Amino acid sequence: MKLFYCTLFVFLFSTSTDATDIPALWHDQVWKKLIHFEDTLGHSEIENADFFLAPSGASDPEAEFKATLAAFQTQAIDNQTGDSVLCKYPARALYMRSHGFNVADPLSGCVALKKWLGSTDDLSISIIYADGYLENPASFYGHLLFKLNNANGTNLLTNSLNFGARVPDNENPVMYIIKGLIGGYGAEYSSNFFYRYNINYSEVEMRDLWDYKLNLNAEESLLLATHAWELLFSDYTYYFTSRNCAYHIAKMLEVVVDDTLIEVNDPFVLPISVFDSLVNARTRTGNSAVASIERQPSRQSRFRTQYHALTLEEQELVKHLLNSTTWQSELKDKEVQRQIAIVDATIEYLNFVLATETDNTAAKSKKRALQKYRIRLPLAENKPQEEVKQLPHTSHYPTTARVGFGYNEAEKVFTSIMFRPAFYDFLSSGGGILPNSALSMMETELRLDRNKVTLSSLKLLNIETMQLNATGLPGDYGVSWKLTVGNERNFIDDAKDSNEFYVEGGVGKAFELGDWVILAQLDGRLQTPNRNNQRYFAKPKLASLYENGQFKMHCELSYPISLKEDNKKKLRSECNAKLYGSKSFDLRFGFAHQFASEAQFSISYFF
Question: Could you report the per-residue pLDDT of 503-515, keeping only the tens digit for each?
Answer without folding.
Answer: 999 999 999 998 9
